[in-house]
Automatic annotation (TrEMBL):
Family the entry assigns: Belongs to the bacterial solute-binding protein 3 family.
Residue ranges of every copy of the Solute-binding protein family 3/N-terminal domain listed in the record: 25-248
InterPro entries: Solute-binding_3/MltF_N (IPR001638)
Protein's recorded name: Transporter substrate-binding domain-containing protein
Leader sequence residues: 1-20
UniProt keyword Transcription regulation, yes or no: no
One family name in Pfam for this protein: SBP_bac_3
Domain of life according to the entry: Bacteria
Record's keyword terms, sorted: Signal
Record carries keyword Signal: yes
Length: 252
């Protein structure tokens, strides 16, 4: 590594330490999406919440997290009422209004859930012809062919819970959701015996922490990414992933 590169890294490190030294509070907003981030008896919980809290604690930053509907999360960041959004997909068109921390928080596997008493096997888009698929408003589905297909009809629901409710009542044929999130929600609602999912994924994506465009927050983003990569190499991170690997491991 050249002297110039070492000087740049040292400068960034000092800037990040300066943010932490003042005992700053980072105001984040998010929409509940268990088991990644959700409320448990009025307290924030979830895999990505715990990861974010741990990394910020190491940087000397206090986390202030508020739960809002997804569209209000985007509006809060746009209007400067929040410093960032916890758990958001990285889209090129979002880069103009927010800064994405380089290291992702979680990997997402989008699958199609079905009612066990009315299964719809999925291997290709043609299998979805003329079906009604439940989606969540404001959410991004990264597979372009699925996102733009005209073979099936999309129907929004106000919440993920509502989507699964419509599924077991046959008001929609399938519901698209992250595999881990859908299984967790189904367990919380007592629907394990009534729903299942097609093993072929619709797509894969990653969730990130995104911050407002601000020099101070830009320095924090660099520091956060470095510390997150370090945390991912530790046994504590592996144990955290294991605990959230299946609904059975989590307390109701």
């Amino acid at each position: 590594m050249s002297l110039f590169q070492r000087q740049i890294i040292a400068t960034l490190f000092l800037c990040c330490c300066a943010f932490a030294a003042r005992g700053e509070t980072l105001r984040l907003v998010t929409d509940a999406w268990a088991p990644y981030v959700y409320e448990d008896n009025g307290q924030a919980a979830g895999l990505d919440y715990e990861i974010t809290r741990e990394v910020l604690q190491r940087l000397g930053v206090t986390l202030d997290l508020q739960f809002l509907p997804w569209k209000r999360c985007l509006l809060a960041l746009e209007q400067g009422h929040a410093d960032g959004i916890l758990d958001i997909f990285h889209l090129p068109e979002r880069e103009a209004s927010m800064l994405f921390v380089e290291e992702p928080l979680s990997e997402v596997e989008l699958v199609l859930f079905y009612a066990r008493n009315r299964p719809y096997p999925y291997e290709s888009l043609e299998d979805l012809r003329e079906l009604v698929i439940g989606i969540s408003p404001g959410y991004w589905y990264n597979d372009e062919t699925f996102r733009t297909s005209t073979l099936f009809r999309r129907e929004e629901a106000p919440t993920h819970e509502a989507n699964l409710g419509k599924l077991i009542r046959h008001r929609v044929d399938l519901v698209v959701n992250d595999r881990r999130a859908g299984l967790y929600l189904g367990a919380q609602l007592g629907l394990q015996g009534q729903i299942d999912y097609n093993r072929k994924a619709v797509g894969h994506d990653r969730m990130y922490l995104a911050l407002r465009h601000d020099p101070k927050l830009a320095r924090l983003a660099v520091s956060f990414a470095v510390e997150l990569r370090r945390f991912k190499r530790e046994p504590a991170y592996a144990q955290l992933q294991l605990r959230y690997a299946s609904p059975e491991r989590l307390k109701p």
